């Protein structure tokens, strides 16, 4: 028996990028604990990854290729060899290319694991060279990334560790207790040192309960609230005019657009007290350093891009940058790493059509030219995670759509596949990854043996490139070659490689690993200015009236409740969904439950024009009136009729980035009869 404790890092879609200490017995993971190489991990990790052995060795783990042996969705499969399965896949793909062209093939993937090797190296090369349809990845961060890059360019925000220096922390549309647990003790330390805390969230989250100010805004009204705060700062002489004159552009245009919203009007629209908005202005104007942690909750509605832009403009208007612990944090994936997976892909984007992943149901149902005849799914579970769930499942279940799924466990999507290919998990293959919260990079070697015949994304797509005759001379194909190609293309590649080899972790290049805007780094825009009404964003939002134009609440008498689907601590995506056996309830407020005669535990229907969910009700004191919650990441076995929140969410996208609008459904709820 060999027992070893080995270092790794967690590439799951989470800002914290924990360093891990993995105890392995004869190639099997026995225990996972937090390491210390990422400072904010500080020796502890979330329960999800601590119990990852349940995922790796559970009964739903896929260990052999499977070929459908019954009607689609019947769950009947027979085991096959890799050769047989890949012969079938390549024969079907070649036939589609010959008959309809490669655009009839849609690769469908997301960030189940955010590493550059498993997410976008050989898989992307394969589909680009094949000439398949492109996929616009819009489930998360599409609107916020557009907004942040429009205003700031590619530049890191405030390091999470630097929140200890802040005198005011604003958490806007983010619940760190579920999605970034290592930020919580940092906030606690800041508060012990006297920092104030403001939380903007329709729910009373754990940190909202302890906040100095909680704005429980109606979903979708972050935009008028942020614009009203900006207007108040300008109007009351609290804007930092000297900073704006030196570092910002389109100041007067933002001043003009924000003037549409007084604090009174925004308070009415958002359903909050005007006194609370007054308090926000006073606290924010007075504090320095003050940081806004802009989350991903506010982008998931029709106004999401403009809302994120307005929130990210606040620290510019108030002049909060330039001090440690002051400014904003959006995604720190925009730190100056100067590395990119494009070098590993080694193939330019194909000039083929692009399909928005948040409109898969529409794409599969429509008579597109060419019609989608094959969907190749990896790192993703669209039957559970894509909007318009009923249409997505119907589309994937069509006999004339060939579905291949490369997966670790039997998911809702895998059950609709024609061919299932078993995938390795992150502890079983090499992964290169940089964080989007913690500014660290890891090159993690496999620490455990994959069960059965599971193969990595690189092994699978390397084989498909060969079988489809898409390998070119000089292509990087192995893990070593791909990693080397990424670093070779970067001006900091040698420095990063040396750090990884010496320390097992790399820090962001530059004079400090916690860069401060205007001190260590400058805005990433071409003219180094902060653009408050970027022309490109204004153009992109033209269809909805331009940047900062507000689209009002779409509630109707028939569907009066706003449904949101936030992450929960056991699931920030659909990953690990098989491990949750308990049903998920829909949460609604005391007032909304009483008005409908609903008590805790009652079976209810939640419905709108797209579909219906049947589940238990949970009456919550932590929700404002008019809002219901069904968490994200749920699978069909978590409700009584197999539908989850996504059955109620439409395919209309936000004002920027083609962003999915997971927090924008309007529904009705009643006791089931
Ligand atoms: S999911 Fe997040 S908190 Fe959990 S181990 Fe991974 S990085 Fe850490």
Summarize it:
The mean pLDDT is 96.
CATH hierarchy, class of the largest domain: Alpha Beta
**Please, how many helices?**
24
Distance between the ends: 58 Å
Strand order of the largest sheet: 5-4-17-16-15-6
Specify the overall morphology. Answer: globular
What is bound: which ligands?
A: iron/sulfur cluster
* Strand segment tally: 27
Strand content is 15-25%
Shape-level CATH architecture of the largest domain:
3-Layer(aba) Sandwich
Low-confidence stretches: none
Helical coverage, percent range: 25-40%
Topology:
Layout: E1 3-9, E2 19-25, E3 28-34, H1 47-50, H2 52-56, E4 66-68, E5 77-79, H3 82-100, E6 105-109, H4 116-120, H5 122-130, E7 134-136, H6 142-152, E8 168-172, H7 176-179, H8 183-192, E9 196-200, H9 206-209, E10 213-215, H10 222-235, H11 241-247, E11 248-249, H12 251-258, H13 263-270, H14 274-286, E12 290-294, H15 304-317, E13 327-329, H16 342-345, E14 354-356, H17 360-365, E15 374-378, H18 382-385, H19 389-396, E16 402-407, E17 419-422, E18 431-434, E19 440-444, H20 457-467, H21 479-488, H22 493-503, E20 506-507, E21 530-531, H23 535-540, E22 561-564, E23 586-589, H24 590-595, E24 603-607, E25 612-620, E26 627-629, E27 665-671
Question: Would you kindly provide a written description of the structure presented here, covering whatever features stand out?
Answer:
The protein is an alpha/beta fold. The protein has three domains: 66-137 and 338-427 and 453-485, 3-Layer(aba) Sandwich (Rossmann fold), CATH 3.40.50; 158-329 and 523-544, 3-Layer(aba) Sandwich (Dimethylsulfoxide Reductase, domain 2); 561-671, Barwin-like endoglucanases. The protein is 30% helix and 18% strand. It has 24 helices and 27 strands. Strands 5-4-17-16-15-6 form a six-stranded mixed β-sheet, with helices on one face. Strand 9 (196-200), helix 9 and strand 10 (213-215) form a beta-alpha-beta unit. Helix 5 (122-130) runs parallel beside helix 20 (457-467) and helix 6 (142-152) packs parallel to helix 15. The longest helix has 19 residues, at 82-100. The chain is globular and about 70 Å long. The protein starts with a strand and ends with a strand. Residues 10, 12, 14, 16-18, 45-46, 48-49, 181 line the site of iron/sulfur cluster (SF4).
